[in-house]
What does this fold into?
Amino acid sequence: MSENQNLLAEQRRALILDEVRRRGGVRVNELTRRLNVSDMTVRRDLDALARQGVIEKVHGGAVPVVEASTHEPGFEAKSALELTAKEDIARVAAGMAVPGSAIALSGGTTTYALAQQLLDVPDLTVVTNSVRVADVFHSAQRPGAAGGARTGAATVVLTGGVRTPSDSLVGPVADQAIASLHFDVLFLGVHGISVEAGLSTPNLAEAETNRRFVQSARRVVVVADHTKWGTVGLSSFAALEQVDTFVTDAGLSAAAREEIEEHLPGLLVAGRITDDAS
It folds into this structure.
């Protein structure tokens, strides 16, 4: 981590969280030296990360929270993490959406960021099981929206289903709707991705809905930040070999990039790769 007094709180906390996860723990005095900020600033950052449930404060520092494979964070908790990475990923992934095509967006905070980038792609047909994603498009089409309704705005189909903590709709209703459709591209957010477990989620019903999404897509694009690599949820729903392209951020290590490239035909890294990710 490079020293920089002007780092935004969001950037500092992302760096701290990455350091905690990579090293298995950090001390406050180490962070003050590396980030060139005060002891009080570091402690505030640790307090904020602890409230989000991603670290556990211990005497003199912090350690990562070991989550159960069934733990499913809510949308608000996840949306506060890796914001810059998600925006970088969304910009790259949006370039893969062809005007006039039929695409699917699964639930998740990264697909939510992607939806905002897709507003200017004309004449899309968007199928989603995410209440949040659907609202991005619906808000842009309302007559009262800034600048008025967009020309060539997307046609949005929101599946029915039972709502999860991450604001996705899952279950038999969603599964049946998705199974009857065919998408040019599926943009898929994931809880975890690894060589052994493939794509996984802590929610059994969501696993089945995501499985239907994958089966209905001609091309599968996973959009996930580097912290998802190596994470394993309760239920796997697709093998790594079923993914055509993995779009992630520059925080992914060089070793992980090499491992992914051995199993996937396409890996796109958004943002500038630094020495810390090499």
The chain has a mean pLDDT of 84. The radius of gyration is 19 Å. Residues 9-23 form the longest helix (15 residues). The chain has ten helices and 15 strands.
